[in-house]
Amino acid sequence: MHVAIIGAAGMVGVKLTQALIEPSARHGLEIEALTLIDVVEPPLPETFQGELRREVRDLSAAGEAQRLVEQRPDLIFHLAAIVSGEAERDFDKGYRINLDGTRELFDAIRQANLSSGYCPRLVFTSSIAVFGAPLPERIGDDFHSTPLTSYGTQKAICELLLADYTRRGFFDGIGIRLPTLCVRPGKPNLAASGFFSNIIREPLVGQPAILPVPREVRHWFASPRSAVGFLLHAATIDTALIGPRRSLSMPGVSATVDDQIEALRRVAGDAAVALIEERPDPAIIAMVSGWAPGFDAERATALGFTAERDFEQIIRAHIEDELEP
Amino acid sequence: MHVAIIGAAGMVGVKLTQALIEPSARHGLEIEALTLIDVVEPPLPETFQGELRREVRDLSAAGEAQRLVEQRPDLIFHLAAIVSGEAERDFDKGYRINLDGTRELFDAIRQANLSSGYCPRLVFTSSIAVFGAPLPERIGDDFHSTPLTSYGTQKAICELLLADYTRRGFFDGIGIRLPTLCVRPGKPNLAASGFFSNIIREPLVGQPAILPVPREVRHWFASPRSAVGFLLHAATIDTALIGPRRSLSMPGVSATVDDQIEALRRVAGDAAVALIEERPDPAIIAMVSGWAPGFDAERATALGFTAERDFEQIIRAHIEDELEP
């Protein structure tokens, strides 16, 4: 089969590519061709034996989505997005990339469906940002999407389009609402949510980190490894089991910052914890107060999606995947 | 103030216009100018003493929304839409009118807001079609929107845009999810929901009507008079009380077809009821099975929106407004 990844140069895109081409992969997909797309050139996956295309495209530009669809990929992962902070700062860019770019893709597929019966599996990464405060401690699968950011609004709109285009038979869509991914590898991130990763990743390698919120703040996490697992499961699941509600809140770990810190202590000791400096930032505290504390994720769990069970497992996944290569 | 009604030639638009210009009106709005817009010419409201414009425009056409916004109406009612059945038959037209047309309007206001601080009140008519089966007997205010039609999808997307544009301060938006309006005046309607009105309106004037669904079917109703009341209340309410969740399920009457028929019997006797012929239609039965049986409408009720309390009141409102002029 031919697999296309839109947003292949991002953190999740790179890890997904690696998981797809690993010879030991257990995803069961027979991949003959792989098309990697992003606005910057995706890294070269060197071990892949099949037909590989790397394409620098902005799918929101006229005709670009159509050119991808002309290649008739059997499976499309649509991971590309302007992140939350940028979509909030730049209203036009956020709507153009996150909404119009996605709609261009969906409509290009629809045209191909109408002309030739083309009907790919489409895995779309949504976000828990489709939910906005006030929120219950555990958000159920029937809870409404009332986002408090333009990013969350754009994701919620794409979920609605995904369901309608799937209902119409234009493609076989599934949306997965990712928890906040933690521990994000790489440099400390300026995103408002970056500290959740910083306070684990930096102390693990002997570096200091700043904690800008109180320790009782509770949020919803999964590892990047789990995110890749969600995507692979969404790519292979029998979608007849899903029904018309095509977007699912993924499982994860509901943890307070204090839970994070105590898990770090168990894994790396007091010395690591001592590297965390508490420096409250009212702007970040205000933002985080509207974020989701947890989900029941009953539908996704029943459909076989799995994540870590506690924050210590999330830290150990990070150590195995990033620090013990 | 200057009031604009988009969709002024429709049934609700005409009734709203009438309510706005009545000298006895209790809505408390001082209306100096009224702009009536639709794709066909809205009827002339003869008693209006202020400045009146009637404009034939399709707001989804390039530049049309901008031309409306240049007139800087203080209050905009956006009622225009392609109805459910047509949006389902004609995918492109439904998205163009119901989604892109609304977005053109919102963006034209945003541009005016950015350039001059213009910030009108915007009352948007959404629909209970944003909900799709399976549904609880009484849908709560936190229940998610999972529409099963393209029309419902388009309305749900516009609700999300309305909330985001309001949050950003581009306008002061409020969305009202109308129940199925009953009794619709005029000729028998070919819409799937038309029979709910036909089986009351026709027997009241001695004409036969066809009932295509079983009597135990339950649905959610309000009179056209209540719809106008919702719109006027939405136009004048202190929106600071609403919070960021800007779309509200309106109050109404949860009634079975049997409740409808027994109310008709109390108002008009057995002879009227005998004019109803039961002729089950599997296609209509299937469609109606996914419709909302009822709402708790707690938020809207707390905010002062009111509707009829039982179906007999709905019939009496029809008789007063349509048969005793």
From TrEMBL, chains A, B:
Keyword ATP-binding: no
Domain of life, source organism: Bacteria
Recorded GO MF terms: oxidoreductase activity
Alphabetized UniProt keyword annotations: Carbohydrate metabolism, NADP
CDD domains from the UniProt entry: Gne_like_SDR_e
Transmembrane segments: none
Pfam family, one: Epimerase
Domain NAD-dependent epimerase/dehydratase residues, every copy: 4-208
This protein's record includes keyword Transferase: no
Name of the protein in question: NAD-dependent epimerase
